[in-house]
Amino acid sequence: MKMDDTIFLFLCTLLVWLMTPGLSLFYGGLVQSRNVLNTVMQSMAAMIIVTFIWITVGFSLSFGTGNQVIGDFEFIGLQHVGFVINEQLSPHIPLALFMLFQMMFCTIAISILSGSIAERMKFIPFIIFILVWVVLIYSPVAHWVWGGGWIQQLDALDYAGGTVVHITSGVSGLILAIMLGKNKDTEKIQPHNLLITLIGGILVWIGWYGFNTGSAYAFNNIALISFVNTVIAASGGAFSWLVIEYIMTRKLSLLGLLSGVLAGLVAITPAAGYVNYVNAYIISMIGGVVCYIVINVIKEKYKYNDTLDAFGIHGAGGVVGAVLTGVFQSKEVNPDIINGFIYNGYLHTVLIQLSAVVVVVIYTIVLTWIIGKVLQKYTPLAITKEENERGLDQLVHGEKAYFYGELNKLNKRY
């Protein structure tokens, strides 16, 4: 065990933890003022629910030895998880710290997913859904990719969760959004407070440095490369997004800048420790353009209600990043991998990445649909007309984020 690596990952874990409350604020500013607390609660409640599932069965199903499909119950209830290392999973750091770092990944995946159904799904069914989602979707995919499963055996690469976190959450969010039906209000809802969104976006941006850099699990050359690539990618995604936004609308929006930053960060996530700096910028720029097109062209054409574009940024960006990893991966950057398409001219690495993406997408679609349909048999998923009109904050949580009426009364009195 190396103490410098342990301290390094301890700090990275705290940064990744920050991403969930950050994303809750990012989403909270984008919804209507009467639903902001409900939107924030979806992310914050995820922290509570994921912790419970992760320490009981989630970590064991994800990283227990098991077979190539699912982990066993080796770590159920966190037995055998402590300060000692695990040669396969955490050779440089305590296994308990590795477990916590991975728990943060699962938590942010739930927070991402909530963006697709914000303001539209009942709170209790959402909580039940994520309980089942962690066990049936996230944990198996995490095992496939990182826990010794078939995708890892295939030598498909996912450095920090492009497939495990972003594709699963984005695709599940899209399927849930479709199952909830189209919003009867055809007018596009405008963000109620972009300054809250800005603050949340900054927290997510900072947290992403721990998300990608910590995935090296050691304070080494790969950690530094992934850190630099993450800084580069945030700017690359924002740059390409703003360029295409200006071409299409003749405007440069703050929300566009933040969305581009997230698109670039998502796109580089599976490749951060495997590509050089120039290629990281290329990947992020492609990610920014593709995500913009998915959100502003494809979504508008097909009219699916991905409320806060969780699929448009995380699902689409995750697919782009995963596939482009096979194009740009470099043995010179990371000696543990083989060269990608641009270095050897063979499509082998691209096809491996594409195969993993296709299977994960199909698996996520099918399981999300099944979970949703079973839930619909027992309880409605979509909010009612009254809940939509009166707002979820007051009806569901008994609270308000703002007190405009009371302030107006005070102003009139004085």
Automatic annotation (TrEMBL):
Residues 8-402 form the Ammonium transporter AmtB-like domain. The chain crosses the membrane at residues 6-31, 43-63, 93-114, 126-147, 159-181, 193-211, 217-242, 254-274, 280-298, 310-330, 350-371. The keyword Nucleus does not apply. The keyword Ribosomal protein does not apply. It is a multi-pass membrane protein. Keywords: Ammonia transport, Membrane, Transmembrane, Transmembrane helix, Transport. It is found in: Cell membrane; Membrane. It holds the Pfam family Ammonium_transp. Its main location: membrane. SUPFAM superfamilies: Ammonium transporter. InterPro entries: Ammonium/urea_transptr, Ammonium_transpt, NH4_transpt_AmtB-like_dom. Coiled coil: none annotated. Belongs to the ammonia transporter channel (TC 1.A.11.2) family. This is Ammonium transporter. It comes from Staphylococcus devriesei.
